[in-house]
Design a protein that fits this description.
The structure is a single chain. By secondary structure, this protein is an alpha/beta fold. It has 8 helices and 11 strands. It has helices at residues 3-14, 95-106, 108-113, 126-133, 150-154, 165-176, 190-197, 212-238; strands at 48-51, 58-59, 71-74, 81-84, 90-93, 116-121, 137-139, 147-149, 158-160, 183-187, 202-205. It has a 5-stranded parallel β-sheet with strand order 9-6-1-10-11, sandwiched between helices. The longest helix is centred in the last third of the chain and has 27 residues, at 212-238. The protein starts with a helix and ends with a helix. This is Magnesium-dependent phosphatase-1. Pfam families: Acid_PPase. InterPro entries: HAD-like_sf, HAD_sf, HAD_SF_ppase_IIIC, MDP_1_eu_arc. Residues 1-29 are annotated as: Disordered.
């Protein structure tokens, strides 16, 4: 056998193909990634929207995968671009996650608000996460074909390390100057949402990944919380 053939055999042995992992809400992976109804006129909007990564933005979770080298290829049958790990297993984004990012980048209301996009993850595979964020594409939804990468969407607002996510948000607040009350957070783990909510952040639990309903619930909860605070302030002022 040639040296090239020996190397190919060695690679297959090191990274055998496995049965693909399936997301809890696997059917949501095949939903179309389209822009949804825009926020209502005059609706209070967050100044920062933050997403967890594993099983919120994508699935499988990175610890389940073989990791680098990551590759990107186009499926011959569907034409869809796929991000693959070293074993050939696909890392898939929840369509609602990319749709949410597209709306945050393209809708005039969020542009006027100056809404920023951030990531807060407890993964210990930060290098992998950073690389694959640069492979996933977010369409701006305008029909112009303009796209950007997920990594470009979040810029430098990326916090990835172990420990309570309160620490992640403390750093995001210090970096942006945005109050916790003006932040919205999506995560698939209840402990994370409970911890971060104690800071005053509006949190949405999305078990099984981002969905359109989770997005709508998040915007609604944020607006209702802002309205409640405004009513309480008005009532307190009236008593003076």
């Amino acid at each position: 056998m040639s040296s090239g053939g020996a190397e190919r055999q060695k690679t297959r042995t090191r990274h055998p193909r496995r049965r693909p992992h399936r997301a809890a809400n696997d059917e949501t992976m095949d939903a179309p990634a389209t822009l949804w109804a825009p926020p209502l006129d005059g609706q209070d909007l967050p100044a920062l929207v933050c997403f967890d990564l594993d099983d919120t933005i994508w699935f499988p979770e990175l610890y389940m995968m073989r990791g680098a080298p990551w590759t990107k290829e186009r499926c011959d049958t569907t034409g869809r671009e796929r991000v693959m790990d070293a074993s050939g297993e696909e890392l898939r984004c929840y369509p609602a996650a990319t749709a949410a990012m597209a709306m945050l980048r393209s809708h005039a209301a969020f542009a006027k608000r100056g809404t920023k996009i951030a990531v807060a993850s407890r993964t210990n595979r930060g290098a992998w996460a950073d690389e694959v964020m640069g492979m996933f594409v977010v369409d701006d939804g305008s029909g112009s074909g303009t796209t950007t990468t997920m990594r470009e969407c979040v810029g430098d607002l990326v916090e990835m390390y172990s420990g309570t996510k309160k620490r992640h948000f403390e750093k995001l607040k210090a970096r942006t100057g945005i109050p916790y009350a003006d932040m919205l957070f999506f995560d698939n783990e209840e402990q994370n949402t409970r911890d971060v909510a104690t800071l005053g952040v509006t949190c949405v639990l999305c078990v099984g990944g981002m969905t359109e309903r989770a997005w709508e619930d998040g915007l609604r909860a944020f607006a209702e919380k802002k309205a409640l605070v405004a009513r309480r302030r008005a009532a307190a002022a009236a008593k003076r």
